[in-house]
Amino acid sequence: MIKTPLCELLGIEYPIFQGGMAWIADADLAAAVSNGGGLGIISAMNAGGDWLRDQIRKAKSMTDKPFGVNIMLMSPHVDEVAQVVAEEKVAVVTTGAGNPTRFMDKWIAAGIKVIPVVASVALAKMAQRAGASAVIAEGGESGGHVGDLTTMVLVPQIVDAVDLPVLAAGGIGDGRGVAAAFMLGAVGVQLGTRFLVANECNVHENYKKKVLKAGDVDTIMTGKRLGHPVRQIKNQFSRNYFKAEYSSISDEELEQMGVGSLYKAAIEGNEKEGSFLAGQISAIVNKEQPAAEIITEIFAEAEEVLKGAGKWVR
Ligand code: TUI
């Protein structure tokens, strides 16, 4: 059995979060992960407050275990969704793609545990000062919006910089990854890509197929020119976008190219025009299974690896 302080902090059985994937992580997936003993997370992405409130209430009807909401700080509706999570008093709020400190007092006053995703030491320290319960150190191997540093480099630095439980994210897809994260000082992990192919995940079948088929070099980073680097699977859309970044088209035209591409991938399954955000670990994600089975399988593997961790020590 693997138990860490994160389990006690949140009242969860396994120290694992499901990442808040935009257009993908809804109440069905979050409830399945929470019922499986992890922490399921609903993504507020660019949605409005009404959609989020419905999803939170749906998840409450599907599980009596704790679950969380991920607030994407670049959302045009960020103030509205920040208010909704405070009113609905979800157990945990995770944040991404920015600095959450301006919302944290309100969330903490509502009894919410705030766990920001950080891609730098500076933001981790700021989050600690603002009252975070833990932080998620996310490396650039992950899917979607990413920072510069890898998980291997980022996690130990965050562990040294803050006096909080640290979760590792980015490039983790099986028990070996969990064990490695623990070796770096993490006491929990967050996985997105592996949960994307869970049976309970409502993303379009074509999206799942793309992740299941992807090999080691099948993701690409786009968006650097506009300051929002994003990792996604190589296809017609991402190759064209990548080329356009190095062409003479204006920033406005480039921005326009990306509009709606996530919806096209996740909801419509449009293989040519969609933006299929996924992590580098897609290459070892090779089967669909229930969320609960993903969790038990990963922790059985991690336990074996960790038990054998001293085998070269003489
Ligand atoms: O947020 C994510 N992953 C995401 S958000 C998203 S929606 C989107 N789509 C297109 C462009 C941009 C966003 C898809 N995937 N992960 C968490 C994460 N947060 N990764 C990196 C960061 C981050 C980066 C800089 C967090 C804070 C930060 O600091 C900014 C500051 O102001 O200090």
**What is the mean predicted local confidence, pLDDT?**
98
Q: Helical stretch count?
A: 14
The rounded Rg comes to 18 Å
Distance between the termini: 26 Å
* Bound ligand species: ligand TUI
Kindly state the number of beta strands. Answer: 11
Helix content: 40-55%
Written as H for each helix and E for each strand, in order along the chain, the element string is HEHEHEHEHEHEEHEHEHHEEHHHH
CATH secondary-structure class of the largest domain: Alpha Beta
Order of strands across the main sheet: 1-9-8-6-5-4-3-2
Word description of this protein:
The protein has about 325 residues and is of the alpha/beta class. It folds into two domains: about 5-200 and about 285-310, Alpha-Beta Barrel (TIM Barrel), CATH 3.20.20; about 205-280, no CATH class. Helices cover about 40% and strands about 15% of the residues. It has an eight-stranded parallel sheet. The longest helix has 17 residues, at about 290-305. The model has no long low-confidence stretch (mean pLDDT about 100). Ligand TUI binds near residues 72, 97 and 138.
In short:
With 314 residues, the protein is an alpha/beta fold.
Notable features of this structure?
314 residues; alpha/beta; TIM Barrel; 2 domains; three-stranded antiparallel sheet
Topology:
Blueprint lengths: L4 H6 L5 E3 L8 H9 L4 E4 L5 H14 L4 E6 L5 H11 L3 E5 L4 H9 L3 E6 L2 H9 L5 E4 L5 E2 L5 H11 L4 E4 L5 H9 L4 E4 L1 H4 L8 H9 L5 E4 L7 E4 L2 H10 L5 H8 L2 H6 L24 H17 L7
Parallel strand pairs: 1-9, 2-3, 3-4, 4-5, 5-6, 6-8, 8-9
Antiparallel strand pairs: 7-11, 10-11
The protein binds ligand TUI.
The site of ligand TUI has 18 residues, from strand 7.
